[in-house]
Amino acid sequence: MSEIVDYIKNYLKNDKTGSAIMLVGAWESGKTYFLQHELVDALKEEKFETAVVSLYGKQAISEINKNLYFELRIKKALNKFKRRKKCNTSDNNLEPKKSSGKPSVNTKVGGWFKKNAAEVGRTVFTLGKTIASGVAGYFNVHVKISGEDLYRLYKSIDLSNKLIVFEDLERSGVDVFEILGYVNSLVEQDGAKVLLIANEDEIIKRLSGKSVLDDIKKSANNSETKTERDVPYTLLTKYREQKEKTIGDTIVYKPNKPVAISNILASFNNKYLDRCLNEFSLEDERGIIHEIIRIMNKLESDNLRAIIYACQKTTDLINYCDVELNLNYFKRIFLGIVAFSLRLKKDNALVWTCGSKSPAELGTDKFPLYEFCYNYIKSQMISVSQIVEHSDAFLKEEELKQKKAACSNVFDEIYGFPTNEQAKLEAAVKEIYELLVKNDSVPLNVYGTLANYLIAVKPIVDIPEIIDKCKEQMLANISMSEVDDALISNLTYHDGVQLWDADQIEEYNIYKQNLLRAATDRKNVRLISAVTPDDWESIIKDIDNNLDRYIGSGSVFGRLNIPSLLGYLKQTDANKLNNFRGCVMAIYRPINIKEFLRSDRENLIILRDGVNEIIDNKSAKDKVCLLQFEWLRKELGQIIDKLQ
Question: What is the pTM of this model?
Answer without folding.
Answer: 0.49
